[in-house]
């Protein structure tokens, strides 16, 4: 069973006199930064001047500074830029400012797991990873609740890295819901696999394959869109809230029977075998090496695939149909 920590297991006093730098004021950076500040902690925000995120930080009452300045002043440095940017930010602005007694924090372990960032032994390195977007992290905090998070310690130079991590987690409200202990390897590998096999890769390919099957069989693309994409949200919302069995109890018996008897026709042993191959590529570092090289080369394959995917018929049909649904507009 996983080890789970709550409010009583964390002490904010551990970090109350420390300066915390939030590097990158995106959705996650904003949520964590505001929560830490509202918990009475000293927060410094680093963001690029002239960007929307910089302006948002100012609106929120922060005075954004450069990464160099934030890293030099802070005792705890939380890197919340995108994965492919973190190595550059670390090498140019953070590495030179790391001194004994400081801590480096992440909310995703990619750059530590695949050795893109190699911190000096003199600093603590830990991860606090909320299992929800930054907007939800903020919303739950404001409601007196929290978003479950993961905690991992990669390097314990001070002997207090775990306590620092728990205090940080408490500062963003995570210990109200529960903080699960893990490792950088486990968090990174399961995160990448989940994105590829289910959440993004698996789900989108399944939707497109079903859409194409219906259209090729002569059914109207609009009907195929509703049945294979639009209604997916209804099902995932039920699974999200009630679990798989809870979802089955809330759909028709016909749908449940079709689920239990036909689902394994699509997701069969061959599919499971291919999922194991995906996991092997993640764990071996093959995917990470490919993605790192892709970024170093200027993303030619990424950009080509993005353009290609945008041209699929389901995208054109979806744009037209979503215009019929004003409740979906922001």
Walk me through what this model shows.
- The protein is α/β, with parallel strands linked by helices and 330 residues long.
- The protein is built from 16 helices and eight strands.
- The protein has helices at 27-38, 52-59, 67-73, 83-94, 110-113, 134-142, 161-171, 184-199, 201-216, 221-230, 232-249, 253-266, 269-284, 286-296, 300-310, 313-322, and strands at residues 4-5, 19-23, 42-46, 76-79, 103-106, 124-130, 149-155, 179-181.
- The protein has an eight-stranded mixed beta sheet with strand order 1-8-7-6-5-4-2-3, sandwiched between helices.
- α3 (67-73) crosses α4 (83-94).
SSE layout and pairing:
Layout: E1 4-5, E2 19-23, H1 27-38, E3 42-46, H2 52-59, H3 67-73, E4 76-79, H4 83-94, E5 103-106, H5 110-113, E6 124-130, H6 134-142, E7 149-155, H7 161-171, E8 179-181, H8 184-199, H9 201-216, H10 221-230, H11 232-249, H12 253-266, H13 269-284, H14 286-296, H15 300-310, H16 313-322
Parallel strand pairs: 2-3, 2-4, 4-5, 5-6, 7-8
Antiparallel strand pairs: 1-8, 6-7
Helix pairs in contact: 1-6, 3-4, 8-9, 8-13, 9-10
Features:
11% strand; alpha/beta; 8-stranded mixed sheet; 56% helix; 8 strands; globular; 330 residues
Distance between the termini: 41 Å
Instruction: Kindly report the spatial arrangement of strands forming the biggest sheet.
Output: 1-8-7-6-5-4-2-3
Strand proportion, as a percent range, falls in 5-15%
Gross geometry: globular
- pLDDT below 50 for ≥5 consecutive residues: which ranges? none
Order of helices and strands: EEHEHHEHEHEHEHEHHHHHHHHH
Number of helices: 16
Number of strands: 8
Give average pLDDT, whole number: 97
| Helix share, percent | 55-70%
CA-atom Rg in angstroms: 22 Å
């Amino acid at each position: 069973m996983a080890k789970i920590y709550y409010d009583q297991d964390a002490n904010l006093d551990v970090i109350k006199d420390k300066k915390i730098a939030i590097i990158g004021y995106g959705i996650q950076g904003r949520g964590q930064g505001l929560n830490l500040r509202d918990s009475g902690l000293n927060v410094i925000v680093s963001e690029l001047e002239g960007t929307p995120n910089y302006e948002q930080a100012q609106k929120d009452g922060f005075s954004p500074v450069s990464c160099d300045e934030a890293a030099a002043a802070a005792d705890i440095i939380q890197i919340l830029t995108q994965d492919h940017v973190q190595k550059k930010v670390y090498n140019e602005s953070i590495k030179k400012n790391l001194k004994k007694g400081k801590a480096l924090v992440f909310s995703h372990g990619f750059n530590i797991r695949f050795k893109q960032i190699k911190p000096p032994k003199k600093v603590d390195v830990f991860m606090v990873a909320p299992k929800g977007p930054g907007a939800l992290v903020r919303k739950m905090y404001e409601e007196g609740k929290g978003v479950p998070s993961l905690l991992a310690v990669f390097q314990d130079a001070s002997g207090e890295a775990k306590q620092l991590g728990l205090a940080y987690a408490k500062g963003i409200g995570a210990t109200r819901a529960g903080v699960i202990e893990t490792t950088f390897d486990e968090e990174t590998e399961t995160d990448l696999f989940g994105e590829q096999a289910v959440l993004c890769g698996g789900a989108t390919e399944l939707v497109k394959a079903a859409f194409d099957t219906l259209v090729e069989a002569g059914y109207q693309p609009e009907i195929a869109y509703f049945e294979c994409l639009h209604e997916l949200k209804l099902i995932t919302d039920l699974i999200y809230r009630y679990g798989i069995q809870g979802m089955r109890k809330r759909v028709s018996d016909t749908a449940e029977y079709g689920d239990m008897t036909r689902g394994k026709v699509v997701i069969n042993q061959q599919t499971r075998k291919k999922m194991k191959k995906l996991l092997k590529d993640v764990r071996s570092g093959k995917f990470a090496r490919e993605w790192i090289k892709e970024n170093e080369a200027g993303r030619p394959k990424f950009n080509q695939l993005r353009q290609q995917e945008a041209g699929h018929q389901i995208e054109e049909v979806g744009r037209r149909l979503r215009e019929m649904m004003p409740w979906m507009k922001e």
